[in-house]
Design the sequence.
């Protein structure tokens, strides 16, 4: 009992539980989905196990990213006043609990040490690269068959059965994470080399497997970094990176059959929509029809939206007015998180979502944290073409990254101001 009391009072119990929650979150994203559900629970226990619980709650109430996440849940609760899809609403409330648990863990629990944060980040980078290489190996076993699937718009699923959109985002984040973490003072020569190799593996995997969404966010991040270098007056480095951003896709198109197949499929897909052809068998064309449909719903309910739980019903009702010749089974949801927020919450909900996403960058420390900057650029870009929060893995990926990077950084900023 005395040893446990010492373990608790020193804060190591809370810190180790937070570390366990972070590791479980990473492993759950990569392979074991059940651990993703358990991680917020462990994080909440870590917060309650803090010997400085009252002081930690003080930090929580002053943490802007954490409070924005809490307001997001509060808005969902308030939408009960005008929702009509009660079963969906109850499910959405349950799914939204990590918005409260994860920020609470990273503000109230004893914070991770620098070495522990490096370990968690490295686990994500190395684990994602390993899954990517294993998936790439499966592609290389039957390249002709895989290229034919790409030609008709299909994507190779990760070996751990991660959907291709979030997996592409994870590979892009692993690339940027590997390049930033290898510069950490605590990273020794072995870890430095492993992180660099993992970043290159993620880069190659994205190009060979031609994940359209993953490549989009990868080059958006590289473009943002090039512009940032120019703003910092690193003209040679910035111009060199921008040149590479323009040249690399062309080289990939020339060298990789999978990329040529993906580009050809994409152009043909868009033409089916713009030329008014039958789009029932074309994924991207159906998404464009969904964007127009969602925009009409948002215009009709511009202030508070139809309610986050009612967006599906509102989309289907709008399709009944203009269906683009789509059969009911092919009337897809909007693949745009901003339009999803506009439909569900109107300009109020969209404004709240933009505050969550871009708010951390209004702190000077946000611009100085490359990991956070890349995370926000990648997430902001992918949400133009995917409603990531509608996918459970996409929701978990964002919340865990947001807590680990944005919420934890705000806490460090608050503590440094007190000192």
Sequence:
């Amino acid at each position: 009992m005395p040893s446990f009391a010492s373990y608790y009072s020193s804060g190591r119990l809370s810190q180790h539980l937070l570390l366990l929650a972070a590791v479980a979150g990473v492993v759950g994203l990569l392979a074991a989905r059940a651990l993703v559900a358990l991680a917020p629970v462990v994080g909440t226990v870590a917060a309650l196990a803090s010997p400085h619980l009252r002081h930690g709650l003080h930090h929580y109430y002053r943490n802007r990213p954490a409070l924005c996440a809490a307001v997001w849940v509060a808005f969902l609760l308030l939408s009960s006043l005008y929702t009509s899809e009660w079963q969906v609403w109850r499910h959405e409330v349950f799914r939204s609990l990590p918005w409260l648990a994860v920020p609470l863990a990273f503000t109230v629990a004893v914070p991770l040490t620098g070495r522990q944060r490096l370990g968690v980040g490295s686990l994500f980078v190395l684990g994602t690269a390993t899954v990517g290489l294993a998936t790439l190996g499966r592609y290389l076993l039957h390249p002709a068959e895989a290229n034919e699937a790409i030609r008709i718009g299909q994507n190779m699923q990760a070996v751990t059965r991660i959907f291709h959109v979030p997996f592409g985002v994870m590979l892009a984040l692993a690339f940027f994470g590997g390049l930033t973490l290898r510069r950490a003072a605590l990273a020794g020569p072995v870890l430095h080399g492993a992180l660099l190799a993992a970043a290159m593996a993620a880069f190659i995997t994205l190009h060979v497997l031609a994940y359209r969404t993953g490549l989009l966010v990868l080059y958006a991040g590289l473009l943002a970094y090039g512009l940032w270098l120019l703003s910092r007056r690193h003209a040679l480095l910035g111009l060199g990176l921008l040149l590479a951003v323009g040249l690399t896709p062309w080289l990939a198109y020339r060298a990789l059959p999978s990329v040529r197949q993906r580009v050809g499929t994409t152009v043909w897909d868009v033409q089916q929509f713009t030329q008014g052809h039958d789009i029932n068998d074309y994924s991207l064309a159906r998404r464009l029809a969904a964007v127009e449909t969602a925009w009409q719903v948002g215009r009709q309910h511009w202030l508070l939206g139809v309610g986050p739980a009612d967006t599906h019903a509102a989309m289907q009702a709008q399709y009944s007015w203009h269906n683009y010749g789509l059969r009911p089974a092919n009337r897809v949801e909007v693949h745009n998180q901003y339009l999803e927020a506009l439909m569900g919450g109107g300009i109020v909900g969209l404004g709240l979502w933009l505050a969550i996403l871009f708010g951390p960058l209004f702190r000077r420390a946000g611009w100085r944290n490359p990991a956070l900057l890349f995370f926000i650029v990648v997430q902001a870009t992918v949400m133009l073409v995917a409603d990531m929060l509608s996918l459970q893995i996409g929701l978990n990926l964002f919340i865990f990254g947001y807590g680990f990077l944005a919420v934890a950084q705000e806490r460090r900023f608050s503590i440094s101001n007190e000192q």
About this structure: The two ends are 34 Å apart (CA to CA).
